[in-house]
Amino acid sequence: MPEYRAPLDDMRFVLNELAGLPALAATIPDFENATSDVVDAVLAEAGRFAGEVLSPLNRSGDREGVRVVGDDVKVAAHFPEAYRAFAAAGWVSLSGNPEYGGQGLPRVVAVPAGEMWAAANSAFANCPELAGGAILALAAHATPELRARYLPRLLSGEWAATMCLTEPQAGTDLAAVQTRAEAHGDRYRLFGRKIFITWGDHDMTDNIVHLVLARGPDAPPGLKGVSLFLVPKYKLKPDGSLGERNDILPVSVEHKLGLHASPTCVMALGDHGGAEGFLIGRLHDGIACMFTMMNHMRLGVGVQGVGLADRAYQQAVAYARERKQGRSRDGKERVPIIRHADVRRMLLTMRALSEASRAIAYVAGGHLDLADHASEEADRRRHQARADLLTPIVKGWSTEIAQEVAALGVQVHGGMGFIEETGAAQFLRDARITTIYEGTNGIQAMDLVGRKLLRDGGRALDDMLGEMQALDAQLAEGGAQLKAIREALAAGVRAVRESSRFILEGSAKDENLAGAAAFNYLMLLGVVCGGWQMARAAVVAAKGSSPAASAHFLRTKLATARFYADQIMPRAHAHALAISAGSSSIMGFDEEDF
User: Fold this and answer.
1) Residue in 32, 158, 438, 505 annotated catalytic
2) 22: number of CA atoms within 13 Å, CB side?
3) Quick one: average pLDDT of 289-303?
4) pLDDT score for 175
């Protein structure tokens, strides 16, 4: 298996030309240190660490897996040393608040770093991603005392974190959570079981900070009765040093399709008198607090899909250049399979989908930075609305295309792709969970339709579609070179407008329409948003106006955008047709007919 090489040229291009990083650094005082030299150095070092330290452990970690020994989980060989090096290099604190030891770089700079970790070693990458979400949740909702005691150690990477939501009877239905919290002085004792807890226990850090959903005293039924608690693996002494083991223990680890090196634990709380915990936010307001972390994780899972897609593409290209099959037209020599048109179709599909999903994710990260730091309140609200709109697309569409790209990677390898030793199958196995955890893609689709379209009548969507249409003038200036891209984007925008109108008008008459149309609507918006970003890139490439990009890079970017317009954008029409069919055929079966 070839080691991972970060696509730094495309990452820099997307950050500078599409995600607006130079404007962030120039206009936001908090980001004045995010100069091009600093960001280039960060990306280069992240790429080196991903390729030299994390990537070599990907295959061995997959083979070795994890195991429970006594009350502890032991991870694969060399993972703890790699994590200590990761923490010492400051990667956990990249975009963290300097007040608690963070480096204060824009979140959009942390997005490509997260892509690199996921591409090099997706199982490893989940651990720091969880810490990042916990840091945001504590910074937003915890008391000053809890922030002071826990945030510096989380930002330094000394301690890790988890998100403990799911229970055997609850699944995604958090209203059914039964873990209970009993008041005990200024803290709580928790009792219950949590399942599917990613990195729930391990030997990579000295302590683990669990964020646990539970029902506090006198909790009303349903979501309104759920609270969020901080439950450390080890209790802290008054001076902040580690004390005795808390009553939260791993019962077992799951045996999974992929991500074998990432421990997914069943966690027991309170089997020996109660797990000590501290309330985060207000009592019975845990869902709102938890979603600060959840939204971070959803964006992170989407970026994980981007990374896995790019890694699968890299390996497929390397194999296609080496594998010889068939002969040249004159019959004199055997040729590498990369010369065959169908193999090129697969490789270009992988490349185009990977680059489009990367662009959407980075753009979403840029909007999050502006939502937090723009000087005007109206601008902050507008950027937050755009980030909210893009988040289910990043999570949902990027992970769906990760399945497709990884599967194509296996196909490019042919029979060797089905053999574990090549490594192509691992990317497909590891990517499979991304459409499931942090809210299945069906839930992402319903969030997109229910909260982002129906709830505000499509206002945030109209704002984004207006920007897409405004690009038409620049595409027109490109003449024949950009004609196909211009026409494809215009058709995609029309499909989104018509499908949105159909859902907005029809949902009042058909209670099943939103659910029936949601997945195709998510995929429609993903395809068109990807086409929009590729069209923006094509405008820059056609003008040759990106100073940091080589002529070769701009030529291939333009060619990839043209391929996306020709071969990927027609999918928008199919998704729109499926939406327009309504719910009748989906709901036509009685339950007993299945």
Assistant:
1) 438
2) 11
3) 95
4) 86
Is residue 563 situated within a structural domain?
A: yes
Do the strands 159-164 and 207-215 form a parallel or antiparallel pair, or are they unpaired?
parallel
Q: Are strands 248-253 and 324-327 parallel, antiparallel or unpaired?
A: unpaired
What distance in Å separates the CA atoms of residue 568 and residue 475, rounded to the nearest whole number?
A: 18
Proportion of the chain above pLDDT 90, given as a percent:
95
- Structural domain boundaries, residue 500: 441-585
What's the structural domain count of the chain? 1
Task: Output the pTM of the full model.
Answer: 0.97
pLDDT digits (tens, 9 = 90+) for 184-227: 999 999 999 999 999 999 999 999 999 999 999 999 999 999 99
CA-derived radius of gyration, the chain: 24
Query: Residue 547 above 90 pLDDT?
Result: no
> Is the per-residue pLDDT at 76 higher than 80?
yes
3-class DSSP assignment, residue 334 = strand
Is residue 138 in a domain?
A: no
Q: Is 28 helix (H, G, I), strand (E, B) or coil?
A: coil
Place of tokens 């089997």: 271
User: In the numeric block, which tokens belong to residue 341?
Assistant: 């048109």
C-alpha distance from residue 462 to each of 180, 202, 495, 508, 525 (Å):
43, 46, 13, 20, 13
> Cα–Cα distance between 127 and 138 in angstroms, integer?
17
420 carries an active-site annotation: no
For the chain, the average pLDDT equals 96
| Alpha carbons 410 and 421: distance in angstroms, whole number | 12
103-114 pLDDT, tens digit per residue, is: 999 999 999 999
Tell me the residue type at 444. Answer: Q
The answer to whether position 48 is within a domain reads no
Residue 215 belongs to a domain: no
